[in-house]
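Why do we bother with a discrete structure alphabet at all? Because it lets us treat a fold like text: something you can write down, compare, and reason about line by line. To make this less abstract, here is a complete entry for NAD(P)-binding protein. Read it the way you would read a sentence in a foreign language you are learning: slowly, and without expecting to understand everything at once.
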Amino acid sequence: MPGIEQSKCVLITGATAGIGHALALSIAKLPSQPQVIAAGRRQDRLNELASSNIETVQLDVDTSTESLKKFADHVVDKYPELDTVILCAGVQHEFDFKKDADVGKLVSEMNINYTSVATIIAYLVPHFLKLGEQGRPSFIVPVTSGLGIVPAPWVPNYSASKAALHSLSISLMAQLRDTGVHVMEVIPPLVESELHDAYGTTEKLSKIWMPLDEFIKLTINGLCRGDAHISAGNALVYFGQFEKEKDKLALDYQLRHDSW
């Protein structure tokens, strides 16, 4: 499968922190020099990325489908060469269902981590299909999590949202086969991140997480190779134990459906 070294224009959501921020900087430095568009909430960090010759657009994905449609249309209109989207925006909350669970946070977390991602993909696929008809490859890159394979019970909704996105990624691979639209799923293990700051667990987790630079190097290599699933650490172990056959099984289901 082709990789993102063939990309001319890459949109990255969640680019103001963590994996998204690091990927934006790294992809902008690829020898192929693709145009990088960084989307995120924090304007100060977008300004920092803009100083690195990266295009920026402010976006809070926890919004309505109408707003996401306007965002997708705007990006395609302004950057008609757009051929890659990397979906990194995410949030993680702790919930204990034995106590009062904050339903507002449950809904928001699912919207940020899954619904908005599926929505942006749905709005960009028609554009990518047109590129495929012209013989140009395009790439959809959802960022899921090892917790989408084996859940962490203290972050049950986060784990469920990433499991949903992992399942969607496999289905998209089967649906979009032979269209020129390639799906590559990034499945991080526990990686150095601000994601854990809100619950005061960063110091403890920093003793066991994978350094961000190390993970980004592995991820860039996988994206350039065109790997269908890009992972590391215990997430890679879990994938090997529980998920290896799902791509083939899902494709078999899709082919059977297509023959009905």
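What the structure line is telling us, in plain words: The CA atoms of residues 192 and 212 lie 5 Å apart. The chain has a mean pLDDT of 95.
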